[in-house]
Structure formats: C-alpha cells, structure tokens
TrEMBL record:
It comes from the Eukaryota. Residues 1-88, 89-175, 176-261, 262-346, 430-517 form the Fibronectin type-III domain. This is FNDC7 protein. Coiled coil: none annotated. Transmembrane segments: none annotated. InterPro entries: FN3_dom, FN3_sf, Ig-like_fold. It holds the Pfam family fn3.
Length: 708
C-alpha cells in the first residue's frame, strides 16, 4: 500500500464543498477524500491534489482526511484537518413592485450574521448599488423602468466570512404607455387602440370595460383592435404594459362611447287618415334620431328629432317602409327593425248608382290604389244590404222600395283591412208599386181607379192599355178618373208611382172591359102587318143583341147573335119605343135607345068591288080608323087603276075600267111620308063582260071566286 498523504491545507469556498491540498505520494494512483460529520461522512476519489469533497452541508464543521490508493491497496488516513463549510447563499425572491423599484427578499441563512446585496444594470450602465443588512429583504428604488438589473447577494458569518453568493437578473416593470388613442369603427363595432411604445415592455394588454363587462386585447405591438363592442355602451379604455417583471400601472382610462343601439318598440299609428305617428323607445347614448319613411313608389322622406316620435303625411293605399336610426358623435346606430305599414286603401271615387229596377241598384266606381276587395253597404229601411266583390261594380238587390239608403263603398286590403272613412252617398229607391184596390164605373166612358197609397210624395199614373190605344190619368192621392174610354174595348189597367228617385214597377194589371158600343145604324122595316124586320150595324164589343119594341099594348123582343131580327106580333097603327141592348161576352150591357117607331096603319078589311053603271067599279072597305086615308089600286093586264076617297070615306070609284080582265086589288092606308103601304093583302077580282061592256066581278083569291 502507498504511503499516508500529508494534508497541506483544507478550506471551503462553497457551502457544499471543501477543497483539500496535499503532497503527492509516490506510487499512488488515486486518493480518497473523506469529510466526516459525526457519524456521517462523505467520500470522494480523485486523481491528484487538490481535490474537492462535495455534497456537504453548509456552515458545518467536518474532519477532513486523505488516503492514497494504488493496486496494492489503501494507505492509512492522513491526520485530519477540521474545516467548516461556508454559509449557504441566500435564495432570493425578486420582484419589481413598480416600474422604478425592485424588491429583494430571502429566507434566513443558518449561521449568517448579515447579508450583502448589490444591484446594477445588466448592460453595465450606471452605478452599482450595494446594501448590507441583517434583515431578509431589501427594496431598491429610483431605478429605470423596464430595465434589466443583475442582483447578487451573499451571507457572512460572525467572523465576516462571506458565504456562497446568489445572482439573479431582474427587470423592472415597464412604465405605463402614453399617448393612448382610440379610434371607433361604428360599422364594425370595434375600437382600434394605439399608444407610444414603452421601454422594456414585451407585451401590452388593452382593457375595455363597461360595468362588469371587460374586454381584453393582448399584443406585442403598439396597437390593438378590440372587436365585438356593444352598441349604446360607454367603455373605459386603458392600456397596461407587461414584461417578465410584471405589469405597468394601467393608463388613465379613455372614455369611448359607442354608437347608440337601434331604437326598439317602434310603433306606427294612424290616428286619422293621412297622418302617421311613428314612435319608439329612447336608447342609451342617442343624441338625436332620424326616421326614414320610404313608400312603395320609391319616394322617401325623413324626419330629424331629439324626441321619440315623428309625424308624417301619408296617402291612402300605400305601403311605407319605416326605419329609425339613433345618432351620436360616434355615428349611426345599426339598422334595426324595418317596419312596413300599409295605409288603408283609398275610398272609391267616381261613385255612380243606377237603378235597374225599383228594388235593385247597380253601383259602379273607379278602382283605387291598395284595394283587394270592395264592400258595398246599403243602410236603410229595416236592415243593411251587403255586397262584396273584387270587381268595381256591385248590384244591390232586394232593397225596400220608397226607402232612403246611405250607400257606402268600402275598400279592403289584406294588410290594413277596411277604409272606414269613406263617405256614404244618399240614394232613395224608387216608389213602391201601387196596389189597385177598386175600379168602378162613374159613367159610360168614365172609370174611377182607386189604389192604396204606399209612398210619400209620389205621383201616381194609371194607364189603361188596349188595342185601341192608351188612356192615362194622374194623381198624387189615392184615386184618379180615366175619361173618354171607348166603348166595347178591353183594357189592362195598371198603376205606377213616380218620384224624383225614379219610377216604381207597375202594379198588377186589372182587366177592364167597357160596355159594348151601341150600333150607330138601326133600320126597322115592316115586313107584314104583324112582322117587322129590325137591322143594325155592328156594335163593337157586343156578342148578342136584345131588341125590344114596346107600346102600351105590349112589347116584342128578339135576342140574337145576328145584326138583324124579325119581330112578330106587331100591332098595326101603333107607336112603339125602340130599344136595343148590346151584350158583351162577359155580360156587360149597353142600353141603346133610338127614335120611336110607328107601325103602319092597319089595312082595311072587307074589301069588295061593286059594279057601277058607267063602266066603273066601286071599291069598298071597312076602315080601321076613320082618320086614315086609303088608296085603292087595281092592277090588270089592260091597265092599272087607283082611287083615293075623300077623308072619312071608306070607298072610292074607278070609272071606265075595261072588263074581261083579272085585277089585283090592294087597299092600303096612305102614310104621311107619301109612299103607299104595300103590306096590305091583295085580292084578285075578275071583271067579266057579259052582255054589256062591264060584266060580272068575280073574286078569285087563290082558289075561290066571288060574284058580286
């Protein structure tokens, strides 16, 4: 084994190690250093001197020995030396509480009697600051902001022996930025914040606060954009500089007022047609408001106000698009709700009402803007008549006659409903149809018509319509008289009512038949002594005729369809009244009277011929009336002979009548009119020549002959 080494010196420069120096031992390849503290020890093998034992405890007294080593083994330990490790370095805790100070603190070091702390700029500029203290903290002030400083500290013991030192680089916190500027972008609702860079700042933080809301923007440059700001808010903007030492004081807050929010609770009222009132709720930070109203035809108007309402003129049938903006120094609020308001459609114009009948009126009007549907309302009488249609015409039926109506045409739209401001138009319906109650005959050609007056202030016109023409009468009351109606005619009688409102429908027609006309010509012809033929002209409207010849002695009648009649049982020489009744098919009768009729005087009876001596013939008869004059006619082949007696005689003589001839003898009364009556019976006599120029007179008749 090698020799025992001899320690020259042993010392501690670091708190965890002791360095040993010794003289070299020949043949030794290694050395073992041992530091013993009580029962514990630390060994270290080194090649040569000096050698250092590490892993020791600071401020601790150790016994240091050295042993040499070779292949043969280890030597005995050298005589020990007692060496105490130096104090441990204080472990610094460093911060920059402000931009011009650094605070240093540490924990107490075992066996330390004091501490020495020095500080200087890491760039070597300026002077070093050094302080000794027995405390465990120091504050260096009046430093440069944002500057890197190197701090070194160590502890010493009671003998003034310094221990390990501790070095720490610390930067002071930066100064607050200056010249902070805020630019607000109203369209994007963001703020661009800029400032002058500050010394030693590594990053910056922009704080935008409003109440409890805080928005931050971090950057390493000298500007930052803060997005997503809220409208109608006042923000306070501050900038803080940061580095590894901490932060600066925030800058003085810069006030930022954003644009106002879009107004809400927008309402549109049309208190009266043509006037729109737009109102809204006030908004925070709104200094004034602008309301834009754009109609659907492209025309736009606006209103500036510091109040929360605006008035606008409006037209019917338009749709208005309304937006409200709030303004302040920051700009215009965002676009809020765009309301559309459709005004009521216009009232129909060019209104016309034309009556089609007394209970039906056709209403027409010009189309109006904004109307999708029209409602025609007729109010009057006992109710309301409605008509709805998309067309610009409507027919109102079943109206009450003779009734005033207020007819209003309302226009409707799906968006707004009805325009209730449309003015009604007064229209009166035509009078009601009269109801004919009675038709009576006041005379031969006079008819009285009565009806029920069911209208006010109406004029009634009664019309009798027939094949022969029209007859009218007019009255404002309940009756009128038709005059000069022709006989024998059929009429249809109806009545209408007229008023300024129009004309009623005609009443139901009442048939009217006038009595048949009396024949204008009536001729009586006596056929025989007891038979008279009556003939007459046609009486218009008559179907049958009843003729009557009446005298104190009785009457003769004949009822016939013809225009003539033979009446028997006529008494000769009698005055008759002549009457005729024309009877229609329905039984209407016209009593017609004519000039009296006198039957012919009675023919004489007992006509005989007597022979006279001078070739004459006496005609003898029995007169029915001594006041009647007679005439006797003898007609034969040799001549015609006649004689008339003096008044009151019943015979006359014909002289120089040829014999040997057959004569027809007629004795007839002489009428006032002159002509002889031919109705009397004819007798045939034969005048013979026997022994003289005048012979026998023989009555032949039809089959008999008499000798007179």
């Amino acid at each position: 084994a090698p020799d025992i080494p001899v320690i020259d010196q042993a010392y501690s420069k670091l708190s965890n190690s002791i360095t040993v120096e010794w003289r070299a031992v020949p043949g030794a390849t290694n050395y073992m250093l041992t530091a013993q503290d009580g029962d514990s020890f630390v060994e270290t093998i080194v090649k040569n001197s000096p050698g250092t034992v590490t892993g020791l405890k600071p401020a601790t007294l150790y016994r240091i020995t050295v042993r040499s080593i070779n292949s043969g083994g280890k030597s005995q330990p050298s005589p020990f030396r007692k060496v105490k490790t130096v104090l441990a370095a204080p472990i610094l805790s460093v911060r920059s509480p402000s931009c011009d100070s650094i605070a240093v603190s540490w924990k107490a070091v075992h066996m330390a009697a004091g501490f020495s702390v020095s500080l200087m700029r890491s760039d070597g500029l300026g002077r070093m600051l050094k302080q000794n203290t027995t405390n465990t903290s120091l504050l260096f002030t009046n430093l440069d902001p944002g500057t890197l400083y190197t701090i070194k500290a160590y502890a010493w013991n009671a003998n003034g022996m310094p221990g390990d030192d501790f070095t720490y680089n610390q930067r002071t916190s930066p100064n607050a930025p200056v010249d902070v500027k805020v630019a607000f972008n109203s369209g994007a609702l963001r703020a661009a914040v800029s400032w002058m860079p500050t010394e030693g700042a590594l990053t910056y933080s922009v704080t935008v606060s409003s109440g409890l809301l805080k928005l931050r923007c971090n950057t390493s440059s000298a500007s930052c954009t803060v997005p997503s700001l809220q409208c109608g808010s006042e923000y306070y903007v501050s900038v803080t500089a940061y580095n590894d030492a901490g932060s600066s004081e925030p800058t003085d807050a810069v006030s930022l007022k954003t644009i106002p929010c879009a107004p809400v609770n927008i309402s549109i009222e049309e208190n009266e047609p043509g006037h729109l009132l737009v109102s809204w709720s006030s908004v925070s930070l709104g200094h004034y408001y602008v309301v834009f109203v754009k109609s659907d035809d492209g025309l736009e108007v606006h209103c500036n106000t510091s109040y929360t309402q605006c008035h606008f003129q409006s037209d019917c049938g338009f749709t208005y698009f309304i937006s409200v903006f709030a303004y302040n120094k920051a700009g215009q609020s965002p676009l809020g709700d765009v309301l559309n308001y459709t005004t009521a459609p216009c009232c129909p114009s060019d209104f016309r009402a034309v009556f089609i009948s007394s209970d039906t009126v056709r209403v027409t009007w010009a189309p109006v803007r904004g109307a999708d549907l029209y409602e025609t309302r007729a109010a009057g009488g006992s109710g309301v008549v409605l008509c709805r249609d998309t067309a610009t015409a409507c027919t109102l039926s079943a109206l009450q006659c003779s009734t005033p109506y207020n007819i209003t045409v309302y226009s409707f739209s799906e968006a707004r409903g009805s325009n209730t401001s449309c003015a009604p138009q007064y229209v009166a319906t035509a009078p009601c149809s009269p109801e004919i109650k009675n038709i009576s005959k006041e005379g031969l050609s006079v008819i009285s018509v009565q009806w029920k007056p069911n209208n006010e202030e109406a004029t009634y016109v009664v019309t009798a319509r027939g094949e022969v023409g029209l007859w009218h009468c007019t009255s404002t009351r309940n009756s009128c008289t038709l005059m000069d109606l022709p006989c024998g005619s059929a009429f249809s009688v109806s009545a209408i009512a007229r008023s300024p409102a129009g004309q009623s429908l005609p009443s139901y027609s009442i048939p009217l038949e006038t009595a048949p006309c009396c024949p204008t010509d009536l001729v009586l012809t006596q056929v025989t002594q007891s038979v008279t033929n009556i003939s007459w002209s046609v009486g218009r409207g008559a179907q049958t005729y009843l003729t009557t010849l009446e005298s104190p002695n009785g009457q003769a009648k004949c009822h016939t369809l013809q225009t003539y009649c033979l009446l028997g049982c006529i008494t000769c020489g009698t005055n008759y009244t002549v009457s005729l009744r024309a009877i229609s098919e329905t039984g209407l009768t016209s009593s017609c009277t004519y000039q009296g009729y006198s039957s012919s005087a009675c023919c004489p009876s007992g006509v005989k011929l007597y022979r006279l001596s001078n070739n004459g013939i006496r005609v003898f008869w029995r007169a029915s009336d001594e006041t009647i004059n007679y005439n006797a006619d003898l007609c034969g082949s040799k001549g015609n002979f006649s004689c008339s007696p003096s008044s009151g005689l019943n015979h006359c003589d014909i002289t120089k009548i040829p014999c040997g001839d057959v004569y027809t003898v007629v004795v007839a009364p002489v009428t006032d009119k002159g002509p002889k009556l031919t109705l009397c019976p004819k007798k045939i006599y034969s005048v013979t020549c026997s022994g003289s120029s005048v012979g026998m007179v023989i009555y032949r008749g039809k089959s008999n002959a008499k000798h007179i």
